[in-house]
Structures are given as C-alpha cells and as structure tokens.
Write a structure and sequence with these properties.
CATH topology of the largest domain: Glycosyltransferase
Strand order of the largest sheet: 6-7-8-11-19-17-16-15
Shape: globular
CATH class of the largest domain: Mainly Alpha
GO molecular function: hydrolase activity, hydrolyzing O-glycosyl compounds
GO biological process, one term: carbohydrate metabolic process
Helix content: 25-40%
Largest sheet: 8 strands, antiparallel
Number of helices: 13
Distance between the termini: 34 Å
Protein name: Glucoamylase (Glucan-1,4-alpha-glucosidase), GH15 family
Pfam family, one: TREH_N
Structural class: alpha+beta
Number of strands: 32
Length: 597
C-alpha cells in the first residue's frame, strides 16, 4: 500500500453527528468545518497550507508517530515519540445521552498526556474563516484564548499557560494538559473533570452503539470501523448522510475532477439504507428515511440527484481561486453543479430506500397512512421521466443518454411499488407499477449487445460501465443465469484491474478518460461475484481491497491502480457502505453466524 505522509489520507477523523474533523499523523487538524458539515472550514490546511489555519501539538525536534482509535469508538489517539520523550494526544467530539437526548456540542477536545520522560512541545491554534479569506483576532483570557472576527466567536479553554499562545516558545510537558475548542457557546465548567467525564461518556456511547449492531463474523473489525465512519457522516439534525466531509480532493492528480461532496446524494440512498439495515441500526435508518421523505414531499417538478444537509435545493457551485488546492490541484470548489442535472434513477432510489417504511414490521404502519399518495407520486415521476435521456449515475455534464442504470432503478422502484401495493391492498397501484416495470425492462434490453453478451452503459452505445453490475445484484438478471455470468465476465475483461480494482468506465467523458479506479465499484464487483456463486473469488478480492485502506482502515473514493494511492474525497462514506454491503453479501453466502449485541 502506497502512503505519503503529506497525504490527507494519512489521517483519522472524529465526529459527533454535528461536525467532522481530520487529524493528521503529525497532530495537525487539517480539516474542520463549523458550525456544520457544509460551512467554511476553520481549519483547512489540506487545501492550503498557508491560508488554511493550523491546530497542532508538535515536538521541538524530529519525531515518529502512530495513530489508532480506542477500540470500537470514534475517539482517536496519536502518539508522538522524540529523543526527549513521548506523549499521547486523545482527540474526540463529545457525544452521549444526556437529559433524554443526544449531547453533541460544537466542541473539539484534545487531551495531551506525557508517556515517557519530559518531551518539549509547541501548541499552535490559529483558526480562520470564510475559506481562509478572513482570520480571527486573538484575545487573552484568564484561562482561555478568545478568537473573534465580528461574526463568529471561538474559545480555546485550556490549562496550558495562556502566554504560550502569544509567543513562539515550546514548553516541557510534565503533566496532562487539556484543550477544549468551542464554537459559539464557551465551556463554563471545571476543565479537567469535564473533559474526563465527556471522554468516558463518549467512549461508552460508541461501544454501546457497536454492541447493539448486528454484524457477521466475516471481517468484523473492518465492518465495525466502516460502520463507525458512516455513522459520523450523518447530520443528526435532519438525518441526512453526506457523501464525504471534504471538498475538492482530486480523483487523480491534475484531473480537474475536484468536487464538493459535503451533500446528500439521493441517488445513493438505496445503498446507505441497505448498509444500515444489514447492521441493524434502525434509528439511523429511520432518520435517513425521514430526510428522504421530507425531500420527496417538496415537489419542485423533479427530484434532484443531491440536496443540502437541511434539504437545500440550490447548491450553486463556486471556484475559490485563492486557495492552492490539495497538493496544488485546482480548482477548489464549493457547492456542486450536479444539483441541476437530470438523473432519473433518483425516483427508483427513493422508492426502494423507503420500501422498509411500508414492508418492515418494525415500523408502525398507521404512522405511514399516506403510503398510497406518496407511492403514486413517485410512480407518476417514473412514468413521466421513463422516455427521457439523463446525465446518468456518473453525472456527465455535457451529454445525455438513455442510461441502463437509470432504467434499472426505474424498474426496481416500480418493483418496490408493487410490493407496497400488495402490502396495503391497492391492486390499481400494483397494476400500474407492473406496467412500468415492463416499460423500463424494454429500455434495459435495448442496451444488450448480443454479440458481446453484455449490457452496455446506454442504448446504442458500445461502452461498458461498472454500474451495470447492479443488474445482477438487483436481480434484474437471475444471478444463476448464463446471461448474468456472461455479463459479469465481459465487465471483468474490460474494467477490472489485476488487483481486483474496478474502473467506472474507460471511455472519455467531459474531462477525458478516467485515470483512477472507483472503490465502490470494486465492492460492487465483490457482491456480483458472490451473487453468481464465485464466492472464493469474492472473498479473495475483498481481502485485497482491504489493503487499500489507510492505517486506520479508512477508505477514499478512488484508488490509483499503478501504486495503490488513495485519491478523491476522504473518507468516502459510500466506499465504506460498499465494504459493509459486500461483507454482508459474502457472509450470507458463507452462512456465517450473526453476532447480535
């Protein structure tokens, strides 16, 4: 596994479902957006080392470091060893039950403990705002440092001597030190006792959450870490789950494919709901389903591929020319123009994602009394858009087509509507949905290349696309059929690398030919192998894919085939969703026992 210590991928994340932060192995906080996921960063050195601010706890001389999570938590530890001694930093975002609700403040806590001898350290805390365009004025308090810019207020409460933050000298770490950075509301409580209490409670919360999960024994540790990573990508206020906490990390050096992923992609909702359902995390699944329901009930004419975490419709894309970009890769984008795209798979995605609300007996059915009206609304959208060309799952910006993947989800959404119709006893709904399934199937079959025995990415197109692996997983193709096996074999020949990685496609798009593989496609491939009965190959491929995680088993969006380096936004929630779903699919084939907490 290739790893460069300068890479953002050489970092861990913490979060509490209100915010996310990246901590590098060098102790610096390279990414933290406040007050919410899609706000400006207050620390953003991953996109500009000069304008991105800094929050580091580093020794005065050369050092080595290691980083790990406290087992089964999102509490991160970084240990630094120097010639003078060693110390440990525990970073966490408080999260636990208090007063019959979740306590998840905009509070970032760092605990520094000496481990050996008397290391000298230097603590630097210099936040910024407006994506590095504005700085904060620093004020000295009795036991805190105040940061203000006339609009926002931050406070660093600490037992480190306050004068240290107004000079350049290091100090000897001879006792435990605490740093509590807050946004808006300051910490008005005993420092040491409060931090230790919050730490115990936060560790307890995460361990209880994992104990209550349903996770098979197949690579359980990897699934646990992916589940923990996915959980902190959920914005609990609304239930939205973002694709990633970062923006503008390129899919490949110099590619220009630098996107803002701090939004919720409706078109990926099926995969997320499936992953949460597999691990039995019902509360998160219901919150996300409610977010989708709220989105679909606001009829603006058509559903968008993505929305803001509060359901925002307009996500206007801007380029920040003043920022250097990750390792010099420009442009840096905020917002995402893809919200304007036509992606007709979203209606089927929404229908399938919300299917459990009407067929899962854990939901109280009389709370879903609007089923008929809502399903009819989605079916009308599927019917209206069936004959349209769209941008497809990969959001092509300059051309449209009748994409096989879009029609597949129209087919699958109509199938879900059939199930809902039978559940609520609505034969008219069943008949309408069945007719739409047949229409969608005609479009899918128009993508079949009989000579090559493969479904192409779109009607009248010769190009292959990894998204058509879903034809097998969604059971449009019988996994036991010769057609499914031939389709998979053709995709393997063209899109698979020797390492088991998978390209989305290899034809040119708006930005040329893709130069990196897309990790979730490789996990889809694992699922497809398991579906067609090639279970040993599925297991071997899954094991190889695990080597592309970083030192904390966090996964990016893209992998460079040539050297295994990670690219794209990180960690990518949907890469972790792909891992979770692939592990579940294999475990079911292996008939592995399920551990239930």
């Amino acid at each position: 596994m290739y790893m460069d210590k300068r890479h953002v991928y050489n970092s861990g994340i913490i979060g509490n479902c209100a915010y996310l932060a990246h901590i590098q192995k060098d102790t610096n906080v390279s990414w933290l957006c406040w007050p919410s996921f899609d706000s400006s960063f207050i620390f953003g050195s991953l996109l500009d080392a000069t304008k991105g601010g800094r929050f580091s706890i580093q020794p005065a001389n050369e050092y080595s470091s290691k980083q790990y999570y406290i087992e089964n938590t999102n509490v991160l530890r970084t240990e630094i060893t120097t010639a003078d001694g060693s110390y440990r930093i525990t970073d966490f975002a408080p999260r636990f039950r208090q007063y019959e609700r979740y306590f998840k403040p905009l509070m970032f806590i760092r605990k520094i403990e000496p481990l050996d001898n008397r290391p000298r350290i230097r603590v630097v805390c210099d936040p910024v705002s407006a994506y590095g365009q504005r700085s904060f004025t620093k004020y000295r308090g009795s036991n805190h440092v105040e940061f203000g810019n006339g609009i926002e207020q931050l406070r660093l409460t600490t037992n480190v001597p306050i004068s240290h933050f107004f000079g350049e000298e290091s100090f000897v770490l001879s006792e435990t030190k605490y740093l509590v950075l807050t946004y808006g509301q300051p910490l008005e409580a005993p420092l040491e006792r409060t931090v230790e209490h919050f730490l115990r409670e936060t560790i307890g919360y995460w361990r209880t959450w994992i104990k209550h999960a349903t996770i098979s024994s197949f690579y359980q540790a990897a699934v646990i870490r992916s589940a923990l990573a996915l959980k902190i990508h959920q914005y609990e206020d609304t239930g939205a789950i973002i694709a990633a906490g970062t923006t503008s990390l390129p899919e490949h050096p110099g590619s220009g494919r630098n996107w803002d992923y701090r939004y919720c992609w409706l078109r990926d909702s099926y995969y997320v709901i499936t992953a949460l359902n597999h691990i039995g995390q019902f509360e998160e699944m219901e919150q996300y389903a409610n977010y989708i329901t709220n989105i679909t009930h606001v009829d603006t004419g058509r559903l968008q591929p993505l929305y803001g975490i509060n359901g925002q419709i307009e996500l206007t894309e801007h380029i920040l020319d003043d920022l250097d970009g990750y390792q010099g890769n420009k442009p840096v984008r905020i917002g995402n123009q893809a919200y304007e795209h036509i992606q007709n798979d979203v209606y089927g995605q929404a229908m399938i994602a919300l299917l459990p609300l009407y067929t899962d007996y854990r939901f109280v059915f009389n709370e879903r009394s609007d089923a008929g009206r809502w399903v009819d609304y989605i079916l009308q959208k599927i019917e209206k858009t069936m004959d349209e060309k769209d941008a497809g799952i990969w959001e092509f910006r300059n051309f449209a087509n009748h994409h096989c993947y879009s029609n597949l989800f129209q087919w699958a959404g109509s199938s879900a509507a059939c199930k809902i119709g039978r559940t609520i006893g609505d034969q008219q709904m069943v008949d309408k949905a069945a007719a739409l399934m047949n229409r969608a199937a005609q479009y899918i079959e128009a993508c079949y290349d009989a000579e090559r025995q493969v479904y192409t990415n779109a009607a009248s197109s010769p190009h292959l696309d990894a998204s058509t692996l879903q034809l097998i997983m969604m059971h449009y193709l019988d996994p036991a059929s010769e057609r499914a096996r031939n389709h998979l074999a053709a995709l393997e020949r063209e899109l698979k690398t020797p390492q088991g990685l998978f390209y989305r496609y290899l034809h040119s798009d708006d930005f040329g030919k893709p130069k990196s593989t897309f990790l979730i496609c490789a996990f889809w491939y694992v699922e497809a192998l398991a579906c067609v009965g090639r279970v040993d190959e599925a297991v071997a491929t899954f094991e190889r894919l695990l080597t592309y995680g970083n030192h904390l088993m966090l996964f990016s969006e893209d992998i460079d085939e040539s050297n295994g380096s990670q690219w794209g936004n990180f960690p990518q929630a949907y890469s972790h969703v792909g891992l979770m779903n692939a592990a579940y699919r294999i475990s079911m084939k292996l008939d592995r026992p399920i551990f239930i907490g």
